[in-house]
């Protein structure tokens, strides 16, 4: 499935930070809804927190933040998705060599099913390949079956299962 002509994939720019904050907050809320004990609470203003965070990541040469921008006739352009990827160093504690890592992927509800998610993944993987990464890793919430299907369709395979034991009260 190809992305419609009215959606462009490009590097995020400072003008995208508010939209990235909204989308990142949606990602936080979705994960918290999957398992509120495992994933941090979005708190009172996750939009501001995530906007700040992704803004700092845009400044690094070892990270990539891409946006999917939709432009419809008679409307101003709108960011409808993003991907955040990074080059991660060798990790003895994770028993892996240097690798690319896709940390975030989110597509707005009204743009889902249009091919934006797979295209963002493909662009991030292409950038990580250009950086000489031998592999790309990512995490997917167990309950997020839609995302897992998209990742598997792009060739990702399960290699680790995170398990959680809560040590504080229920």
Report on this model:
The protein has 170 residues and is α+β, with helices and mostly antiparallel strands. The protein has a single domain (7-153), classed as Gcn5-related N-acetyltransferase (GNAT) (Aminopeptidase, 3-Layer(aba) Sandwich). Helices cover 32% and strands 21% of the residues. The chain has four helices and five strands. The chain has a five-stranded mixed β-sheet. The mean pLDDT is 94.
Sum up the structure in keywords:
single chain, 170 residues, alpha+beta, Aminopeptidase, five-stranded mixed β-sheet, globular
Q: Which structural class matches the secondary elements?
A: alpha+beta
Output mean pLDDT: 94
Q: What string gives the helices and strands in order? A: EHHEEEHEH
- CATH C-level label: Alpha Beta
Low-confidence stretches: none
CATH topology: Aminopeptidase
Largest sheet: 5 strands, mixed
Gross CATH architecture:
3-Layer(aba) Sandwich
Strand order of the largest sheet: 1-2-3-4-5
- Report the β-strand fraction as a percent range: 15-25%
Counting structural domains, the number is 1
- The total strand number stands at 5
CATH-defined superfamily: Gcn5-related N-acetyltransferase (GNAT)
């Amino acid at each position: 499935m190809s992305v419609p002509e009215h959606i462009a994939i490009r590097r995020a720019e400072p003008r995208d930070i508010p939209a990235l904050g909204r989308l990142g907050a949606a990602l936080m809320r979705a994960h918290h809804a999957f398992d509120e004990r495992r994933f941090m609470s979005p708190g009172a203003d996750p939009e501001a927190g995530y906007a700040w965070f992704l803004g700092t990541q845009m400044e690094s040469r070892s990270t990539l933040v891409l946006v999917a921008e939709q432009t419809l006739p008679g409307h101003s352009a709108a960011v409808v998705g993003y991907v955040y990827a990074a080059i991660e160093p060798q990790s003895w504690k994770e028993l892996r060599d240097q690798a690319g890592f896709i940390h975030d992927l989110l597509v707005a509800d009204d743009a889902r099913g249009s091919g934006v998610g797979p295209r963002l993944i493909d662009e991030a993987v292409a950038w990580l390949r250009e950086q000489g990464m031998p592999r790309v890793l990512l995490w997917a919430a167990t309950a997020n079956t839609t995302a897992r299907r998209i990742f598997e369709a792009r060739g990702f395979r399960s290699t680790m299962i995170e398990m959680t034991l809560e040590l504080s009260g229920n």
